[in-house]
Amino acid sequence: MVKQTKKAATWSLVIMGAGFAASLPFHGSIAGKIFVGAFEAGLVGGLADWFAVTALFRHPLGLKIPHTALLPKNRDKMTDGLVSAVENNLLNKESISAKISGMPISEMILEMAEKELQSEGTKGAIDIIAKRIVATLPLERIAPLVANEMKRQIGEMDVSSLLSKAEQQITSKGYDKIALDYGLDQAEAWLTKPEALYTLGEIGMKALNSVQVNGLMQFAMNALMGYLNEERLGGILQRFLYEQVQDLKYEGHPNRHQVLAGIRGQLIRLAHSDKVVAGLSDWKDSLLENWDAEMTVLHKMQELRDRALVYMEDGKYVSEHVLPIIDSLISEVKANDELIQRINEKIVNSVTHLVERNHSKIGTLVRENVDRMDNETLIEMIEDKVGQDLQWIRINGAVTGFLIGVVLTVLQILLV
Question: For a tag on the chain, would you pick the N or C end, based on fewer CB atoms within 10 A?
């Protein structure tokens, strides 16, 4: 486009010169005088503007005429002016800070994050990063920290407090009833077995034989022993104990309430027993002293990591678990106006501080880029950007000169 305009400007100068030469033979007539004056003025205007435009960048016709090739001669001044304009006018600190402060930066970042999260590239990046983090976790350094903290927490546990809480949980959750019912079910199951009868009979006969009595009681005991045998006595004891078990299983039976009250009383005494507390504390300290917690924790963490990597292998966890969590966090942040405002203020302050510290580098960057170009490259760049308008100056100079020449020649004819 610049080359075409430059050709047009050159042709305008050629036309004016050719027109001036062609009209000279007719200068004796009024029309000839007008054309001669017009083309002469157009030629002078075109040449003057050509000289002016050319003198900005180089010496016209290679002649080192004073005050020509202005750009190469004043390159340092031009660079200083450009740097000053960029630093103080176009990109000054105040304008940058004001522009940034008016931008909803946090909202823009969150919206961009929401959009990018659904892309396959982002999902793949999250998958790669997550797997790499899990695979490269320094478990050998983490395990001692976790183990020491576990041992510290366990060592500081108050056994008495734990026992009290355990007693409260057992009674409030009804675990005492569950334990009693479990024991009764086991007793009932045993009593219904055939061998239970003979076992009870054997125990009963041994107990009766061990009884030491004299006189009339001895006579009665012998008569009873002659009637009883292991089978009969076992059956009696079996029926008796079975009935007792059934009574204890019934919620409203007084014996059940007494047994539960006894269990609860024992739990309370156990929880407040200094001897029990001291024994458990010693056992706990001994366990901690002999426990290789570091290796235990390390093996467990390695096992968990291996399981995690197997679970993460197909990458589905990103869409199923990771992205919903991130989406939820973004939604919560977007809904919190106060948090958004604080984030914006933090970003603006950070960027403003960064600009203040590095603002001079903007001018330095401009200067370095300009200094890297030689004169010819710099002239070509400027001509590429503004050359078209400069060539129109030449065209306008020739046309304007032509019109002024017409006016001046007409006035000269009228006044002479």
Answer: C
